[in-house]
């Protein structure tokens, strides 16, 4: 590991000019390329105290052995040179996008004497017009098959074309009218090229001209009583409209734009691009990248723009590029895009309307692509086995942790504090054994703290104590974990569809846990790990390992250790721990939100024991408001169908002890609304809260 001070340039050597720099390792290989508006200011930031650097930046500067730079005259030149160097040297510490799959495009070979329509993959060739990329090759072939009725352009290979010309007989497509058969001279090269140009115009979004022209020809043929020709033109119009329907209109103003969305976590990022031409989505593609350098969303967008348009010219660069974050500064990037297009390009964030809605769709695609990428890695058996082995090695365990339980705490500013426990066996989620806890400050019959407020450490101690206390109780009885009704704890089995199929007891709870975990993971750093370990020590549990995963830097903390364990960025073990932690967070926050939603809708009748929704509605319907119900006698409440005297007494007692509802106010006039109108709303609305 090199000391950055050993190759730091002398003061005054680095110019103030814009430029591009590259770091080399001890073998002379380029490991990082960057650009800067001021080389002196940017490079100086790499040679500060290592403790102040981002971990990935710190790794880069300690791996490097030399730094070089090249001065340029403008920031646009710096952007172009940076792209060229990244492409040439492929530095290991630069963000490198890789396609999450190979996307096919519809290509028209305008560089040939008789242009051909075909499906093409791989790098783009000069003189070929491309449309797409598309998600599937069959989607291209369906579209082409529909359009060949109207634009019978050649689709055959060079060998088939040559053979047909030699024998003087076209292929099958020539006989059924889906090829103009230039191979046998039915049309000249000029006429065939005109067909190819019209095909390209239609694919580029200029569809209205051809539809109107065919409709006029159809009407003229019908007036001249050439009904067979009119029927054929009618079918051609239908074919073109079906081809257009495959790309629904998403932007009503016939916009040409590319929309770029980014989904990211601490280690990876997924980029999705929708290509919109003439207001229709003409193509889609995506990339996944490792975040090997310290980058934010704007930096990821800039890298994506470089890769997307670095080799493009003219109309391949659209008039408008919509992004989730604009690079800072934006002017050099916008100028670079405009130079590649040959005219002005707008780079901006959509704020409202159809474009914002479409950006939301692209964002969802990016999130799904990132989740799919992670799931593919997690679902592979070999990968999962390696991940468990890496965890065991990093944490010093005797064997791979076949069962991992992870705990997380969730609350809203100290209210509705809940916890979750998720279970992973053999590296896969076992949702039937997930558990949820309400934090009450109590373990069994012992009140250990007040159970409220933003205290994740005490909450973590409580939930781990409750989980393993239950385990020890059942172990003493039968050696198995039988579910019992501990206050504040719920099994999610009967309440969530994702747990369907689990054997249940009469009370709807899963019958038992499989076995205790080999590893407990807590969402948090050193304080949460210490709390979990203290809970196990108090119960005498000494055969379960504990660790914590801190969010920001993804550091793994162990009990009684001052420094964290830092797993390699590409470690499968780290991916598994991250996935377990994220699942616990999802499960906890889902439960917390559901509790918060219920509490916000609660009214005074919700506190009445034994009173269900049907009788609540019957009482409100009979009296019209909670205020009138509170003023009613027990005898009057008994008049409601389905309400007996005992229930009526309970209702009257509960409402007498509850605070009266605040008067409703008309917000436009400031007038206090009388109870006849304001109090008629059902429980959960403004007029019934108390």
Can you give a write-up of this model?
This protein has 690 residues and is of the alpha+beta class. The protein folds into 5 domains: 4-94, GIY-YIG endonuclease (3-Layer(aba) Sandwich), CATH 3.40.1440; 105-245, no CATH class; 257-304 and 323-374, no CATH class; 381-594, UvrC, RNAse H endonuclease domain (Nucleotidyltransferase, domain 5); 602-688, DNA polymerase, domain 1 (Orthogonal Bundle), CATH 1.10.150.20. Helices cover 40% and strands 17% of the residues. It contains 21 helices and 24 strands. The strands form 6 sheets. Strands 13, 14, 15, 16, 20, 22, 23 and 24 form an 8-stranded mixed β-sheet that branches. Strand 23 (545-549) and strand 24 form a beta hairpin.
Short description:
The protein contains 21 helices and 24 strands. With 690 residues, the protein is of the alpha+beta class. The protein folds into 5 domains: 4-94, GIY-YIG endonuclease; 105-245, no CATH class; 257-304 and 323-374, no CATH class; 381-594, UvrC, RNAse H endonuclease domain (Nucleotidyltransferase, domain 5, 2-Layer Sandwich), CATH 3.30.420.340; 602-688, DNA polymerase, domain 1 (Orthogonal Bundle).
Topology overview:
Elements: E1 19-25, E2 30-36, H1 39-46, H2 55-63, E3 64-71, H3 75-89, E4 98-99, E5 105-108, E6 117-120, E7 129-131, H4 137-147, H5 158-167, H6 172-175, H7 189-203, H8 208-223, H9 227-245, E8 257-264, E9 268-277, E10 280-290, H10 297-309, E11 320-322, H11 331-341, E12 346-348, H12 353-379, H13 381-395, E13 403-412, E14 415-425, E15 428-429, E16 435-438, E17 442-443, E18 446-447, H14 456-477, E19 481-482, E20 489-491, E21 512-513, E22 519-523, H15 526-539, E23 545-549, E24 556-557, H16 572-601, H17 613-623, H18 626-631, H19 634-638, H20 645-657, H21 675-678
Parallel strand pairs: 8-11, 11-12, 13-22, 22-23
Antiparallel strand pairs: 1-2, 1-3, 4-10, 5-6, 5-7, 8-9, 9-10, 13-14, 14-15, 14-16, 16-20, 17-18, 19-21, 23-24
């Amino acid at each position: 590991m090199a000391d950055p001070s050993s190759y730091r340039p002398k003061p005054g050597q680095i110019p103030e000019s814009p430029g591009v720099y590259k770091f080399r390792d001890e073998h002379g290989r380029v490991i990082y390329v960057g650009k800067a508006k001021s080389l002196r200011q940017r490079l100086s930031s790499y040679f500060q105290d290592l403790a102040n650097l981002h971990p990935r930046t710190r790794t880069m500067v300690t791996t490097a052995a030399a730094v070089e730079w090249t001065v340029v005259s403008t920031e646009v030149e710096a952007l172009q040179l940076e792209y060229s160097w990244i492409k040439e040297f492929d530095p290991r510490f630069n963000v490198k996008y890789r396609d999450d799959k190979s996307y096919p495009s519809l290509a028209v070979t305008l560089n040939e004497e008789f242009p051909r329509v075909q499906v093409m993959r791989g790098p783009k060739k000069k003189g070929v017009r491309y449309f797409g990329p598309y998600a599937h090759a069959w989607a291209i072939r369906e579209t082409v098959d529909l359009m060949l009725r109207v634009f019978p352009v050649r689709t055959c290979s060079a060998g088939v074309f040559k053979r047909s010309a030699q024998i003087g007989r076209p292929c099958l497509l020539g006989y059924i009218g889906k090829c103009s058969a230039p191979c046998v001279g039915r049309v000249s090269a000029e006429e065939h090229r005109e067909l190819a140009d019209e095909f390209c115009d239609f694919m580029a979004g200029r569809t209205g001209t051809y539809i109107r022209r065919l409709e006029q020809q159809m009407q003229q043929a019908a007036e001249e009583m050439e009904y067979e020709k009119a029927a054929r033109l009618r079918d051609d119009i239908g074919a073109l409209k079906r081809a257009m329907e495959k790309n629904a209109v998403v932007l009503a103003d016939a916009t040409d734009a590319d929309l770029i969305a980014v989904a990211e976590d601490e280690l990876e990022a997924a980029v999705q691009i929708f290509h919109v031409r003439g207001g229709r989505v003409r193509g889609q593609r995506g990339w996944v990248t490792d975040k090997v350098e310290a980058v934010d969303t704007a930096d990821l967008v800039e890298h994506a723009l470089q890769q997307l348009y670095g080799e493009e010219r003219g109309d391949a660069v659209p008039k408008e590029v919509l992004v989730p974050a604009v690079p800072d500064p934006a002017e050099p990037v916008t100028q670079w895009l405009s130079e590649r297009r040959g005219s002005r390009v707008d780079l901006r964030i959509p704020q409202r309307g159809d474009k914002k809605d479409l950006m939301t769709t692209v964002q969802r695609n990016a999130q799904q692509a990132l989740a799919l990428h992670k799931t593919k890695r997690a679902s592979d058996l070999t990968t999962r086995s390696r991940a468990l082995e890496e965890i065991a090695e990093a944490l010093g365990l005797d064997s791979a942790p076949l069962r991992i339980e992870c705990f997380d705490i969730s609350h809203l500013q100290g209210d509705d504090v809940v916890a979750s426990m998720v279970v992973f066996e053999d590296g896969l989620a076992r949702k039937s054994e997930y558990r949820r806890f309400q934090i009450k400050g109590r373990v069994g019959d012992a009140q250990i703290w007040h159970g409220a407020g933003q205290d994740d450490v005490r909450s973590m101690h409580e939930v781990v104590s409750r989980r393993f206390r239950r385990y020890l109780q059942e172990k003493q009885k039968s050696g198995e974990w039988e579910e019992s009704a501990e206050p504040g704890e719920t099994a999610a089995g009967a309440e969530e569809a994702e747990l369907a199929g689990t054997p249940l007891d009469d009370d709807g709870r899963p019958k038992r846990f499989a076995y205790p975990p080999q590893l407990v993971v807590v969402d948090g750093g050193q304080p949460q790990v210490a709390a979990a370990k203290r809970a196990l020590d108090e119960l005498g549990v000494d055969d379960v390992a504990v660790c914590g995963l801190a969010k920001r830097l993804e550091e793994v903390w162990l009990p009684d250790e001052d420094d964290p364990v830092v797993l390699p960025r590409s470690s499968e073990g780290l991916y598994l721990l991250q996935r377990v932690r994220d699942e616990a967070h999802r499960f906890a926050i889902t439960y917390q939100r559901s509790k918060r939603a219920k509490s916000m809708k609660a009214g005074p009748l919700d506190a009445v024991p034994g009173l269900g929704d049907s009788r609540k509605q019957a009482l409100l319907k009979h009296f019209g408001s909670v205020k009138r119900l509170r003023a009613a006698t027990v005898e009057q409440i008994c008049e409601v169908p389905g309400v007996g005297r005992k229930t009526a007494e309970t209702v009257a007692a509960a409402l007498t002890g509850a605070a009266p509802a605040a008067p409703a106010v008309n917000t436009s006039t400031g007038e206090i609304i009388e109870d006849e109108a304001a109090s008629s709303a059902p429980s959960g609305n403004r007029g019934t809260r108390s």
